[in-house]
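Cross-posting from the modeling subforum.

Setting up a comparison between two proteins and wanted a second pair of eyes on the formatting. Protein 1 (sequence, then structure tokens):
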Amino acid sequence: MTRINPGDFGILNGISEVIATTRSESGVPNAAPIGIIRNNGSHSSGDDQICVRLFSGSHTRQNVIETGEIVANTIHDPVIYVESTFDDLDPDMFKYPDNKGCPALKHADAWLLFTCKQSKGNLFDLTPVKGVVCNTPMICVNRGFNAVIESLVHATRYQLKQDPKYLELIRHHAQIIQVCGGTREKTAIIKLKEIMEELS
């Protein structure tokens, strides 16, 4: 059996930000941004260890516990990151490669299915099963896209802690987006600002 290299799907050493798709035992799909943690050969065993932190109360964690599967979607649309952080995606945005099981996102550049098993606490070990590279665009680093991701981290922390310092950090990143971002990054930060106004 050919061993799958997660790097072929955009999942590199360190923490790779993806949108995870899962489904409940009853078949309801869910999408949420997560960080896939990969330590390639950094352990004494020399094995490529891949895991993810899933926190109590999240649909992703509950679905993984119920089904044991998760799909990492490599995608570069910042609006989908915002929408999937605070809301449910439209069911039409999902596809089912095997007409059953765990869904992927229709507009992902690549997707990789993992089996997922809880190891300790909030950590779950991931084993790649199969995946598809749908699109291989040449994408440069865009500070605006990165600023959207950082803004979402601060937004979720504000939601938990209600500390106004996170709002200030979002405003800082919004300025970067206005200078460096493209149309989708600017649309994403507008959507996020609207959500933050509702949370404040």
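Protein 2 (same layout):
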Amino acid sequence: MFDSHAHINDAAFDEDRDTLIESMFASGVDGWIEVGTSVKESKKAIALTEAYPKIFASVGVHPHELQGVQESGWDELARLTENPRCKAIGEVGLDFSRGVDINFQEAILKKFVTLAQAKKLPMIFHVRSGNDIDAHEELIRILKTYADADRPKGVIHTFSGNLKQAQEYISLGMYVSFSGVVTFKKSDELREIAKTIPLESILVETDCPYLTPEPFRGKRNDPSFCKFVIQTIAELRGTDVLEVEQKTHNNAKKLLGV
């Protein structure tokens, strides 16, 4: 299993981080992307990967953290991408849950696209709608402004859109990632999407310590719980668990160049 989106540096793991990491590799986890959410957390993500060769990092700033980024922060992010353990730009994107500043978020997102293009790295997109604005529609609009040859590859993390949007993302060269939310019984539309879109376009993730899948919903999440996401997708598609496990593993490593 390869977890395409994890936050093991989160404070929820402070008491047992090293022990937990070692246990992950013994439980069938082949690695994960430790995702940066700010300049500080991106530095910590890179540092974690240097201690564990099966962990890789992404460098980015979550939309909620954008206001605090100074020019020196951009220089630091660019420097961090030079580390060979950095395999993606992210998580970056659009989040309208705390207000509607579309122009500002779009401008910063395009700046991250420029960085991804310069470093030849894929992107991890955070997309959250709010205030009656569909963030997926806005991101699709932005992605369509780039020619096919210039548009970076990427993944829509913890996908929350509809089937048409998933299909549009795939047509634009994106992967769609499913987290523990797909195991929730009330996630009917999401489960139908996981059943319908090509397996070649699917990644799995935990977004740990958040979004813990059934049957452990409410407890701390970790990369080993990818197996419940994989099992659910296999059941929905009527296919073998091993096929989903291998395909999503290969998809992640293909996107990330691991």
